[in-house]
Each structure stands twice: as C-alpha cells, then as structure tokens.
C-alpha cells in the first residue's frame, strides 16, 4: 500500500486497510456465488463475519495476522469510528507487517478467483 509515515498517523492507514480487507474478502465471496445484496444485508462491514464466511466458503491459507487485524479493525470500521478518525486503533502488528498481510490476502483472492490475465468487457 506504500503508506508514508505521515499517512500512518492516527487512523489514516487503518481505514483504508479495513476497506482493503473487506473488499478482498467480499470479492472472493462474490466469486463463490454470494450476491452483493446478500453480503450487504448479512455481513455489512463486519470484518470478522466476512472473514469467517470466506473461510466457510473455502478460502484457505490466509496470511498470519489477518484474523488479528480483522478483530481490531472490524468493530471500529463497522461503527464508522475509523472513517471519522475519532479513534486511533492499536494494531496487533506493525503497519509494515499489516501491509504485507493485506497484500498477501489480495494475492490469495486474486489467485483463487483467477483474475490474472483476464481482460474486462
């Protein structure tokens, strides 16, 4: 994600990190047949729930640290507190490691849904 030290102050990197986790996992769920409406109604912005559902749908070999990030960022993301900047989450891993964890998740999802080399409409 290439965040600078300035970007990492407060919750600035936490909010886009939560978005990346959510969208990566929901992309996998869409590929597995879950509709966007189903995700919106049943999972909302609950990162722990989205992660659990993706695991149950077959996503394996998730990066170490992802569940910890989801546990910390999830409630703050779902409540809107990350977006508003009202809180500064204490991450269970360094921001650099969090970047690698999220990149690993997105690489895993990309491989699972087979999007490499495909061209859109």
Topology:
Blueprint: H1 14-31, H2 36-43, H3 47-56, H4 66-79, H5 81-84, H6 95-113
Q: How would you sum up this structure, described in words?
A:
It contains six helices and no strands. With 121 residues, the protein is mainly α. α1 runs parallel beside α3 (47-56) and α1 (14-31) packs across α4. The mean pLDDT is 88.
Share in helix: 55-70%
Structural class call reads mainly alpha
The major β-sheet equals:
none
Alpha carbon gap, first and last residue: 27 Å
Q: Write down the overall geometry.
A: globular
Total count of strands: 0
What oligomerization state is this entry in?
single chain
| Average residue pLDDT | 88
Ranges with pLDDT <50 over ≥5 residues? none
What percent of residues are in strands?
under 5%
Number of domains: 1
- SSE string: HHHHHH
Rg is 14 Å
Keyphrases for this structure?
mainly alpha, 6 helices, single chain, 121 residues
Structure at a glance:
The chain has 121 residues and is mainly alpha-helical.
């Amino acid at each position: 994600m290439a965040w600078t030290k300035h970007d990492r102050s407060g919750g600035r990197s936490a909010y886009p990190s939560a978005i990346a986790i959510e969208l990566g996992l929901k992309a996998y769920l869409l590929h597995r047949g879950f509709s966007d409406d189903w995700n919106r109604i049943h999972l909302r912005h609950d990162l722990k729930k989205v992660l659990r559902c993706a695991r149950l749908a077959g996503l394996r070999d998730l990066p170490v640290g992802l569940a910890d990030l989801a546990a910390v960022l999830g409630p703050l993301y779902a409540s809107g507190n990350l977006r508003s900047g009202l809180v500064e989450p204490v991450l269970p891993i360094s921001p650099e490691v969090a970047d690698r964890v999220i990149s690993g998740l997105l690489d895993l999802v990309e491989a699972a849904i087979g999007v490499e080399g495909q061209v859109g409409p």
